[in-house]
């Protein structure tokens, strides 16, 4: 995480401790939408990019720059380019790419929260620039449950001296966090550390939010790809034309649907299908998959609902 300058109470370095983990959730969705479907099966052979391209992060950025250069209205291309810049610690460039994405699709909460984080990370003097706060507010206005935006807006409260209010907001976020989510433990540590620094008793309220996952032996399938595909997979997939990317994704989803017809007891497979549908913007089909999964596996209904909530499937 970036260092934060001169924050109240000397807690600057620590305030953003959970932000990176929370960010992975939204970032991974945007990345997989344009590169590959969830890893439900071995990826089909890709047309070979050059060996240098699969090893050089700069080549990935160049490929993405070429993509948006050829199609300046490709919002998802700009979002993916913003992610690639962010991974390279080029935060100003990342923010510019995300701004293009938000201009093209202003109703996407992930784009706005990604922009806000890039602006925070790129600021050398202000731990919460006004334009970053505005981006987080826009994300929340679109999706009140957007976890990264909620986290950072609570950071803003803490920076303004409202430590109890920030802790309240983080606790509310933790309460809405499905057990076992990848950012859960970082968020708990943030609450504990801010509470300790500012002498706010959080033990009772933290204890009331049970950390144990309802299915502890099973990792979350909904977030299994976080922080997303490997850099090599991203580079190879980004080299494909958009139409071939879409065909690859649809082919993998269709293959998974076929496997579930043959084996409807495969709960992990159902969750992967739900995640794929949401990644593709097929919310109605994701909701239908939730119902079908529960109907086929009643004892696993709680787990399926937990995973679906993590993916923001509507109607739950």
List keywords for this structure.
mainly alpha, Serine Threonine Protein Phosphatase 5, Tetratricopeptide repeat, flat, 17 helices, disordered N terminus, about 325 residues
Structural commentary:
With about 325 residues, the chain is mostly helical. The chain folds into 2 domains: about 10-210, Serine Threonine Protein Phosphatase 5, Tetratricopeptide repeat (Alpha Horseshoe), CATH 1.25.40.10; about 240-310, Serine Threonine Protein Phosphatase 5, Tetratricopeptide repeat (Alpha Horseshoe), CATH 1.25.40. The chain has helices at about 10-15, 20-35, 50-55, 55-70, 75-85, 90-105, 110-120, 130-140, 145-160, 165-175, 185-195, 205-210, 230-240, 240-260, 265-280, 285-295, 300-310. The chain is flat, with a radius of gyration of 20 Å.
How do the strands and helices of this protein lay out in sequence?
Layout: H1 12-15, H2 19-35, H3 51-55, H4 57-70, H5 75-87, H6 91-104, H7 109-122, H8 130-142, H9 147-159, H10 163-176, H11 184-197, H12 203-208, H13 231-238, H14 242-262, H15 267-279, H16 283-296, H17 301-310
Helix pairs in contact: 2-5, 2-7, 2-9, 4-5, 4-13, 5-6, 5-7, 6-7, 7-8, 8-9, 9-10, 10-11, 14-15, 15-16, 16-17
Brief write-up:
The chain is built from 17 helices and no strands. It is mainly α.
Q: CATH superfamily of the largest domain, please?
A: Tetratricopeptide repeat domain
Mean pLDDT equals 73
Helix content: 55-70%
CATH class of the largest domain: Mainly Alpha
Query: How many strand units?
Result: 0
CATH architecture of the largest domain: Alpha Horseshoe
Largest sheet: none
CATH topology-level fold name of the largest domain = Serine Threonine Protein Phosphatase 5, Tetratricopeptide repeat
Quick one: overall form? flat
Distance between the termini: 34 Å
Number of helices: 17
Q: How large a portion of the residues is in β-strands, by DSSP E?
A: under 5%
* Poorly predicted runs of 5 or more residues: 1-55, 212-218, 222-231
Radius of gyration: 20 Å
- By helix and strand content, what is the structural category? mainly alpha
Number of domains: 2
N-to-C series of helices and strands: HHHHHHHHHHHHHHHHH
């Amino acid at each position: 995480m970036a260092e934060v300058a001169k924050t109240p109470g000397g807690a600057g370095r620590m305030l953003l401790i959970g932000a990176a983990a929370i960010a992975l959730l939204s970032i991974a969705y945007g990345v997989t939408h344009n590169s590959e479907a969830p890893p439900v099966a071995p990826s089909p052979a890709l047309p070979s990019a050059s060996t240098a391209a699969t090893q050089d992060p700069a080549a990935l950025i160049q490929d993405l720059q070429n993509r948006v250069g050829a199609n300046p209205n490709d919002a998802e291309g700009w979002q993916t380019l913003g992610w690639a810049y962010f991974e390279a610690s080029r935060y100003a460039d990342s923010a510019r790419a995300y701004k293009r994405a938000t201009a093209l699709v202003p109703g996407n909460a992930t784009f706005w929260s990604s922009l806000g984080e890039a602006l925070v990370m790129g600021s050398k003097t202000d731990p919460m620039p006004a334009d970053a706060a505005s981006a987080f507010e826009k994300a929340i206005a679109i999706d009140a449950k957007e976890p990264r935006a909620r986290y950072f807006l609570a950071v803003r409260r803490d920076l303004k001296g409202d430590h109890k209010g920030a802790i309240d907001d983080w606790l509310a976020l933790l309460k809405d966090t499905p057990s076992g989510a990848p950012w859960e433990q970082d968020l708990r540590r943030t609450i504990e550390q801010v509470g300790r620094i500012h002498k706010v008793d959080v033990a009772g309220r933290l204890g009331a939010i049970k950390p144990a996952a309802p299915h502890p032996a099973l990792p979350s399938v909904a977030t299994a790809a976080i922080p997303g595909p490997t850099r090599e997979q991203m580079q190879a997939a980004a080299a494909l034309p958009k139409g071939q990317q879409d065909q690859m994704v649809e082919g993998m989803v269709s293959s998974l649907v076929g496997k579930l017809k043959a084996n409807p007891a495969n709960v992990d497979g159902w969750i992967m299908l739900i995640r794929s549908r949401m990644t593709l913007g097929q919310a109605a089909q994701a909701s239908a998959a939730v119902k079908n999964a529960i109907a086929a596996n009643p004892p696993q209904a709680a787990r399926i609902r937990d995973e679906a909530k993590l993916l923001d499937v509507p109607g739950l």
